[in-house]
Design a protein that fits this description.
The protein has 370 residues and is an alpha/beta fold. It is built from twelve helices and 14 strands. The chain has a seven-stranded mixed beta sheet with strand order 1-9-8-5-4-2-3, sandwiched between helices. α2 packs parallel to α8, α3 packs parallel to α4 and α10 crosses α12. The chain binds pyridoxal-5'-phosphate. The site of pyridoxal-5'-phosphate has 15 residues, from α3 and α4.
């Protein structure tokens, strides 16, 4: 039995009628930019996250860029983040003109290590971006504590963890701003690129509204250098439908993870399995486990028709584009150790028991035949 890494078609077939109605409603309205759908989706998403304000933007990457700028980050500043994330996180920092500084991660949780962040804080540090990687919240208590003592802004990268909770609060509602990606494969996916910033700070929200609309306070009244970075009506209409299903889908992901845990827990080739953490609930954007012979398992599963992948094979501090920052192999040892072991297995809400058993069976067969 072959199992895809992700399958968006199953989800679509379950909500097809509602989505198609919403799309047609927008087409017939002929209102495509900043209309009622975006406005309503912003209200609904803010309520979902438990914050006052939500501002739809063109992508998760832009959400980070605009949130950083709205927090005053720019040339001469430093921003601390994790090297184990998608490049969009650090790309946004560089696009503000600030310098990115990488701190190490926590073993087992794969999220920013507060102790390492503390060591990297300098007089120039302006903000920290905790990334709730694979669906698991960072240790936000410790990060907020550092931010408070050192006067830093906290911009949460929630691209992989929408719906996850830290001490009962949704991610995105904990720092100064939370950045969401609706890239189609994320837990809440649009039918194209889309993103959002959620915040409890009205000033930040107002600045992001300006920045996404060419820096305009009102039409033809440009206060700052901005962007064209708007969420469009079609995406908002589709996302409004899907937001109502998000908690149910995340619950399915958690159930799938539970079954993986039962089936994989005792296999000798498995090193570490993902889970919740003290204070943090995982929504399993990815089901990422550690394996003793990761590259062998990757090859074995791929040749058995099981979709899997390494997130991420080369940490950001060792990527060529950051060569000028001067990092060397060995500088962030926990990250470097983890990337040699991690492998993400098929995970999506509709993934059934049979498929999970097939994946576990294939992994169990690795030592025997491989
Ligand atoms: C997907 C992702 C982004 C970027 O989101 P886009 O909507 O693709 O621009 C940023 N950070 C992380 C951790 C992501 O996974």
């Amino acid at each position: 039995m072959s199992v895809p890494f992700i399958d968006l078609k199953e989800q679509y077939s379950g909500i097809r009628r509602e989505v198609e109605e919403a799309v047609l409603r927008v087409m017939e309205s002929c209102r495509f930019i900043l209309g009622e759908e975006v406005e309503k989706f912003e209200e609904e998403a803010a309520a979902y996250c438990g914050v006052k304000e939500a501002v739809g933007v063109a992508s998760g990457t832009d959400a980070l860029l605009l949130a950083l700028r709205a927090c005053g980050v720019g040339p001469g500043d430093e921003v601390i983040t994790t090297p184990l994330t998608y490049v969009a996180t650090s790309e946004a920092v560089v696009r503000t003109g600030a310098r990115v500084v990488f701190a190490d991660i926590e073993r087992g949780h794969y999220t920013l290590d507060p102790a390492s962040v503390e060591k990297k804080v300098s007089d120039r540090t302006r903000a920290v971006i905790p990334v709730h990687l694979y669906g698991l919240p960072c240790d936000m208590d410790a990060i907020l504590d550092i931010a408070k003592r050192r006067g830093l802004r906290v911009i949460e990268d929630c691209a992989q963890a929408l719906g996850a909770k830290w001490r009962g609060k949704r991610v995105g509602s904990i720092g100064d701003a939370g950045c969401i990606s609706f890239y189609p494969t994320k837990n809440l996916g649009a039918c194209g690129d889309a993103g959002m910033v959620v915040t409890g700070d009205e000033g930040i929200a107002a600045r992001i509204r300006m920045l996404r609309y060419h820096g305009a306070r009102e039409k033809y009244d440009h206060a700052v250098h901005g962007y064209n970075s708007r969420l469009d009506e079609l995406q908002a209409a589709v996302l409004r439908i899907k937001l109502r299903y998000l908690d149910g889908w995340n619950e399915c992901r958690r159930r799938n993870a539970g079954l993986y845990g039962e089936l994989l827990g005792k296999l000798p080739v498995v090193g570490r399995l993902p889970g919740d953490r003290e204070g943090g609930e995982n929504v399993y954007h990815l089901y990422t486990a550690e394996f003793k012979e990761r590259d062998g398992v990757l090859e074995w599963l791929s040749s058995s028709g099981i979709g899997c992948g390494v997130y991420y094979p080369l940490p950001l501090h060792l990527q060529e584009l950051y060569i000028d920052l001067g990092y060397r192999a060995g500088d962030l040892p926990v990250t470097e150790e983890c990337v040699a072991k991690v492998l993400s297995l098929p995970m999506y809400p509709e993934l059934g028991e049979q498929a999970i058993r097939a994946v576990a069976g294939a992994i169990a067969g690795f030592g025997a035949t491989g």
